[in-house]
């Protein structure tokens, strides 16, 4: 399970678990990936929900520059997206929304 943390001007996607030994944050930023669940990856590919492994982070990095960053803290990996203006009124730093991922055909 992953979850999101919303701050006034940022979103953090929080993922439990360490990176595989062959993968570093620097490699992720250049498009390398190491999927943990190959069955899910193949299913999403067959259903046309994904369009090329390892393309998302480099595309976001080109658009956001240094406002996209990763943090590793023990067993937690965070992808943080910083925005120039607040996302919404009333959101406090540290608010959390839990997202349970499921695959549903549109």
Automatic annotation (TrEMBL):
<dbReference type="InterPro" id="IPR038475">
    <property type="entry name" value="RecG_C_sf"/>
</dbReference>
<protein>
    <submittedName>
        <fullName>Putative ATP-dependent DNA helicase recG C-terminal</fullName>
    </submittedName>
</protein>
<keyword id="KW-0067">ATP-binding</keyword>
<keyword id="KW-0347">Helicase</keyword>
<dbReference type="Pfam" id="PF13749">
    <property type="entry name" value="HATPase_c_4"/>
</dbReference>
<dbReference type="GO" id="GO:0004386">
    <property type="term" value="F:helicase activity"/>
</dbReference>
<keyword id="KW-0547">Nucleotide-binding</keyword>
<keyword id="KW-0378">Hydrolase</keyword>
């Amino acid at each position: 399970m992953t979850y999101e943390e919303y701050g006034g001007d940022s979103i953090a996607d929080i993922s439990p678990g360490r990176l595989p030994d062959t993968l570093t944050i620097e490699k992720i930023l250049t498009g390398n990936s190491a999927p943990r669940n190959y069955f899910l990856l193949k299913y999403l590919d067959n259903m046309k929900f994904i369009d090329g492994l390892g393309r998302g982070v480099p595309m976001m990095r080109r658009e956001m520059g240094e406002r996209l960053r990763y943090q590793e803290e023990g067993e937690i990996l965070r992808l943080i997206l910083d925005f120039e203006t607040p996302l919404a009124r009333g959101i406090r730093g540290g608010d959390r929304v839990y997202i349970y991922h499921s695959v549903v055909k549109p």
